[in-house]
Structures are given as C-alpha cells and as structure tokens.
Amino acid sequence: MSDVLPPCPACGSEYTYELDPLLVCPECAHEWTPAVPEAAKVVKDAVGNRLADGDTVTVVKDLKVKGFATAIKVGTKVRNIRLVDGVGGHDIDCKVDGFGPMQLKSSVVKKV
What family does this belong to (predicted)? Predict the structure, then answer.
C-alpha cells in the first residue's frame, strides 16, 4: 500500500501530515478529512456478517461499562444500530436497554 498523503486542497502544499482522523497542512493550517472509498466503509460483525444502519445485533461477550456496577451480558439484544466512525475502533452507535446510549465495537456483536 502507498502511504503517500494527498496535497492540501486549499494551497496545494505537498507537506501534509496526519493528525488522528484529519489531514493537516503545516503551511496554511487547513484541516480536512481524507476521502475514504465506499469499499473501505464496510463494517462486519464478530462472525463476518455485513452490518447496516437499523440492524439488530446481540452482544457476544460480557462488556464492563465504566460507571455501572453490572456488565452488559452475553446475548443482550441491541436494536436499531447506527454505523459511525467512532473513537478507538468503536463503530456502532446504539442504545442499550438499562445502560443508555453508547458506542460499541463491531467485533463484540453478532447480527441477528
């Protein structure tokens, strides 16, 4: 794979660098999100099924939740998920009954 970054769309500078999810130009301070091809946006669950917005999934392992005494148990159903570009690999935005809104990793869920 090529690690060549695109030039700045504002000034054309070739000295761009990555800063987390953004690309930054050191010459004009322009920040932008790089274009990601549609094929790279495919999100798959723990067993390889393709996920989409609105799907229902189940949790495949116990998940400790910061600030709660109990964990999300195996088999908990999560309805109406939304796929997002979250922080730290969390790519599902959802609402878990008894816990409220949160983000999950696709590697800990299975499509129903």
Answer: Belongs to the YjdM family.
pTM summary value: 0.64
Q: How far apart are CA 109 and CA 63, in angstroms?
A: 11
- Per residue in 8-25, pLDDT (tens digit) is 999 999 999 998 889 999
Max Cα–Cα distance, the chain, nearest Å? 52
**Amino acid making up residue 69:** A
Angle (CA) 83-88-110 rounded to 5° is 45
Q: What's the full length of the chain, in residues? A: 112
